[in-house]
């Protein structure tokens, strides 16, 4: 009974095992089928895309162009019969067959070949890869390996360790130049058109060595002289690729596929045997073995894993794509907001290198982002007369800070925000507050002027009362019949001075009268006289002569308050610039399209280096406490408000002329 039960259990176990194996077999077949279906679908999609891409690139011409070195035998060279041939030229012919398009080969000097490729006049060229070339080209998979060597005279004692002390002939534009300059900076490079020309210089003793690719150097040693040898140690051994212009990057998959097919068929070995014999310096034999091993391992792993990964992989990729798009959109939105902020913003890391900067600060400084991002922030801050270590130092701690900085014509409020310890960086904002400061000082000045005006009005009222009493009593005294001539003359003198004092009070009151933006019909000659009266004390003290050249009937429409501000500041500046016995000329005349006003002085003049800053706010050459630097700024601003123009002519030591043109006004 027990034996029968055990047998039954064994049969059930075998059945289950059989079913499991069958299911595994079915699953494996399905996986393989799916794999080949995907492969076929991918191949068809590749062929379809290939046709579209090739049609785009062949639209103007029915062929592609390979352009390379004209004289680099046996890799590529122009033969005596005028045919461009060599190892690489043959390889390009095979690529042409695999790609299904004609590829023309064109020989150039090496520098010209690289230039034409960069400009898109040719479609590809074989080369080594370096950082500089990566800026202009995209690169295919490797097509072969190549060693670069040094050739010296047979009798010379130079070795690999002597490169820094050698004068080396090298081809213009060659990758070897980049390698030597980077690793042997003291070596003296002498540029030639090709390796053959370098060999000639070596034989003449004009250079110590020639650098070149091993097959080319070997070729010229065999052709030119047995007196030349190669230094045993190779400079480097690097894979050679095809470089394409960056705008042709969509050709890369097509060219890579063709390279793969040519190498898979072993065509490169046949070409090498044609040019070199059995021994070949080009092919990396271990490369194929590595790919075969990798293919076997990958194939086995694929059969096991593809079934479980395929479904999850598709879903995961989809989620990653969605999330990536969301993050990209969010990043772009934040960058847009960041760039639209009117303040200048700079974000730096803990080492003072720029992490980000908004568009405003880049446009103001005129710097390209590539010259800023990842570089020291002083590149930007120096434009504001700031230095990173001047505003941020360990001694200042981690507190946020604020400071005012004046640079050139502008004033900036600089705020420094320390980011969290985790981010370990600093946010710097710069806000242009020049206009705010000007408005603040103008408001303060206006308040002072208003106070002075109110004081002047009060004083005028108080002075008018005693003047009225004096005038009344002189009238009463004049009625006295017994008054002699001397008394009458004294009374006349008193009346004249009372009248003059009254005129001065009226002039002061007129000047301080608030007129706002009201446009009035004004007499220019009278305004000149009023302004001169206000400065009469200073003019008399310095014995300055004043000449007014203006038609007494010159009337025009203007804001009188603005005109007074202009004239007061110009005359005040002229007086400050003059010594005793100098002269001021106020000239006014009608011109075809307006009124011409000139304030001319024979003072000290203005230095040429100060001319461009003359109308800037807070700019003054006066001693500390004697000038606010706002006078000529007010003049310029008021002239602008009146739709006029102003210019300055000055010569140091001779004098200055301010010329103002104002419109006549609506009625004139």
Fold and architecture overview:
This protein has 668 residues and is α+β, with helices and mostly antiparallel strands. Helix content is 49%, strand content 22%. Strands 6, 7, 8, 9, 10, 11, 12 and 13 form an 8-stranded mixed beta sheet that branches. The chain is elongated. The relative contact order is 0.05.
Characteristic terms for this protein:
668 residues; alpha+beta; 8-stranded mixed β-sheet; 5-stranded antiparallel β-sheet; 25 strands; 22% strand; disordered N terminus
Alpha-carbon Rg, integer: 46 Å
Mean pLDDT across residues: 78
Strand content: 15-25%
For the secondary structure, the number of strands is 25
Q: Span between N and C termini?
A: 135 Å
Question: What kind of sheet is the major sheet?
Answer: 8 strands, mixed
SS content category? alpha+beta
- Counting DSSP H or I runs of 4 or more residues, the number of helices is 20
Based on CA inertia axes, which overall geometry fits? elongated
Unreliable stretches (pLDDT < 50, length at least 5) are 1-5
> What percent of residues adopt helix (DSSP H or I)?
40-55%
